[in-house]
Design brief:
184 residues, mainly alpha, 3-stranded antiparallel sheet, 7 helices, 3 strands
């Protein structure tokens, strides 16, 4: 199969390949604990991707009846799905990261934002970076020395560094803005 899929499809294949059979709910929870810091995937997108991947024969889905809860569907990677993931990992060219940030988009037009609102946005941005530092540091500490998690560990380390840089930048901008007059 030589279908070109978006990176999120490969993220789903990779998570299934790493963790094994999961429901869409479990896959979303696993993504939130692992790749969400650099590749967030909403629950609705996970389910759309699973449906697409199943139609393409890259995953199989099995309905599992449950007592007291709605039935669920468990997805597993097929051999063709493994081959597609491996092909993408080996053949996909490097793409420069061009992350999207609604905050930075708004900040770019900061001259139109009242100073108190801008200070509030910066404070929220800095606090989010601090939370990322805390969360990612916990992941690093959890994964240190786990051979199978070596690359997750290294990715989380980069995440900590990036979050520290965002935090430091926000503090510098907050100091610069503190010298400006408040809202009239």
């Amino acid at each position: 199969m030589d279908v070109q899929l978006p990176p999120t499809s490969y993220a789903v294949l990779g998570l299934l390949g790493r963790r094994g059979p999961m429901s869409g709910y479990d896959l979303t929870a696993y993504a939130d604990r692992s790749i969400a810091y650099f590749w967030p995937i909403s629950r609705s997108l996970v389910y759309r991707e699973l449906a697409r991947l199943e139609r393409l024969g890259l995953v199989t889905g099995t309905d599992v009846p449950q007592r007291r809860l709605p039935d669920k569907r468990i997805y597993d990677l097929t051999r063709e799905g493994e081959r597609a993931l491996d092909r993408w990992l080996v053949e996909n060219p490097f793409e420069r990261d061009r992350g999207r940030s609604a905050f930075l988009l708004m900040f770019f037009f900061g001259e139109r934002i009242p100073p108190s609102r801008l200070r509030g946005l910066l404070d929220a941005y800095r606090r989010a970076a601090e939370q990322d530092i805390e969360d990612l540091t916990a992941i690093v500490e959890h994964l240190v020395g786990v051979p199978r998690a070596r690359f997750g560990y290294l990715a989380a380390q980069l995440g900590v560094r990036a979050a520290r840089d965002r935090q430091e930048w926000a503090r510098e901008v907050e100091l610069a803005l503190a010298a400006e007059p408040a809202d009239p």
